[in-house]
UniProtKB/TrEMBL annotation:
Its cofactor is NAD(+). GO terms for biological process: nucleotide-sugar metabolic process. This is dTDP-glucose 4,6-dehydratase. It is an enzyme of class 4 (lyase). InterPro entries: dTDP_Gluc_deHydtase, NAD(P)-bd_dom, NAD(P)-bd_dom_sf. Keywords: Lyase, NAD. Gene3D superfamilies: NAD(P)-binding Rossmann-like Domain (3.40.50.720), UDP-galactose 4-epimerase, domain 1 (3.90.25.10). Belongs to the NAD(P)-dependent epimerase/dehydratase family. dTDP-glucose dehydratase subfamily. Its EC number is 4.2.1.46. Residues 10-325 form the NAD(P)-binding domain. It catalyses: dTDP-alpha-D-glucose = dTDP-4-dehydro-6-deoxy-alpha-D-glucose + H2O. GO terms for molecular function: dTDP-glucose 4,6-dehydratase activity.
Length: 354
């Protein structure tokens, strides 16, 4: 994509975990871009994630729901967005098992609402326009012991979450083919880092270790994920946004596979050191519980394309990233406390009662 000096960029879901890191990077790095963070502030959205940039002149927050088509159309008309980086989503697999329809609404219908608004606004001039859809490696389903997901791996989603993301990817591609809407899609592996809501494995376990609460391992814990530090994902999005080719998909991953149990043991070891606890005291909190239905065995990304074409690679090792993450949670006790009060407790009791 050609670089224009000024642009109005819509980032959806910018108050969430990954979105807040993308918003921060763009606001700080590109003072000539106007960055509009559109977020419904669901349980996962938190403006506390962005206090350091909220006063910047090129940052604007819009509280809105992507399910509200007429509001979305009005906002596109009002702010004349040149580009969209779409991260807003329901993102947690366990919640999708309990309430699939919420995922169909936001992840599929919300995405189509945005596509329609972009198609309408850009109908007479597609130059320099871009709809960048942020997706997941879970659309590819599960791997066996070997092999990697590439950009040509067939879609085979297994959870309501991944089925909703896969459908949204198909719609983005379909708008590219049918209406010539310029787009990119990137499919990324598991992110971790500061500001992640403590429902996902790493922040949940950090929180529970601090509290000396059981660490609920699904099944036998022999499931594998490919972990990427969130700021490396944001850097990849920045690169793809500026240098990617129209109608392309990029896989993004950490070249960093860990079986859950090994990861949890490493986390326990690091946390024991940081908290000045006796060696191995946190591993005693490991508790095996009922498996997640449809639990994908293994994810692993082949990120060769984005590496070769755009020169992207992760900047931190897993141990460095984990240490930074743990330090952030220990230094931001108030953040952790505020997001784990009230409704969180209800969710937690319900999810882990079985
Ligand atoms: P998150 O749950 O932390 O944040 C989602 C954000 O979207 C929140 O701020 C929430 O308020 C907002 N949102 C939800 N529904 C909305 C709606 N109807 N209208 C407007 N805003 C709404 O999610 P995340 O982990 O930061 O993931 C961001 C994106 O990246 C998602 O599309 C997800 O599928 C994708 N992704 C996540 C990971 C991961 O490991 N977390 C990996 C690959 C891809
Ligand atoms: O791969 C990318 C995806 O990674 C993203 O698209 C999703 O938005 C994100 O939530 C993540 O999905 P996972 O299901 O892989 O992440 P989660 O942190 O929920 O779980 C990671 C692994 O840990 C998985 O094998 C399930 C296991 N787990 C998870 C939780 C929450 C447990 O054993 N116990 C738990 O309590």
């Amino acid at each position: 994509m050609k670089e224009k000096t000024t642009k109005n960029i819509l980032i959806t879901g910018g108050a969430g975990f990954i979105g807040s890191h993308v918003v921060r990077l763009f606001v700080n790095k590109y003072p000539n871009y106007q960055i509009f963070n559109l977020d419904a502030l669901t349980y996962a959205g938190n403006l506390e994630n962005l206090t350091d940039i909220e006063e910047k002149p090129n940052y604007h927050f819009i509280k809105a729901d992507i399910n509200n088509a007429s509001e979305i159309n009005n906002l596109f008309e009002k702010y004349n967005f040149d580009n969209v980086i779409h991260l807003a989503a329901e993102s947690h697999v366990d919640r999708s098992i309990t309430d699939p329809l919420a995922f169909v609404k936001t992840n599929l219908i919300g995405t189509v609402n945005l596509l329609n608004a972009a198609k309408e606004l850009w109908r007479d001039n597609l130059e320099d326009k871009l709809f960048y859809h942020i997706s997941t490696d879970e659309v590819y389903g599960t791997l066996g012991e070997t092999g990697l997901f590439t950009e040509t791996t067939a879609y085979a989603p297994n959870s309501p979450y991944s089925a909703s993301k896969a459908s949204s990817d198909h719609f983005v591609r379909a708008y590219g083919e049918t209406y010539d809407l310029p787009y990119f899609i990137s499919n990324c592996s598991n992110n971790y880092g500061p500001n992640q809501f403590p429902e996902k494995l790493i922040p949940l376990f950090i929180h529970n270790i601090i509290q000396n609460k059981p660490l609920p391992v699904y099944g036998d814990g022999k499931y594998t994920r490919d972990w990427l530090y969130v700021i490396d994902h944001a850097t990849a999005i920045d690169l793809a946004f500026h240098k990617g080719k129209n109608k392309q998909t990029y896989n993004i991953g950490g070249f960093n596979e860990w079986q859950n149990l090994d990861l949890i043991k490493l986390l326990c070891e690091l946390m024991d050191k940081k908290l000045g606890r006796e060696k191995s005291s946190s591993t005693k909190l490991i508790t095996y519980i009922k498996d997640r239905p449809g639990h994908d065995k293994r994810y692993a990304i082949d990120a060769t394309k984005i590496h070769k074409e755009l020169g992207w690679k992760p900047s931190v090792t897993f141990e460095e990233g984990l240490e930074k993450t743990i330090d952030w949670y220990l230094e931001n006790e108030l953040w952790l406390k505020s997001v784990t009060s009230g409704k969180y407790q209800e969710y937690y009791d319900d999810q882990y009662k079985k």
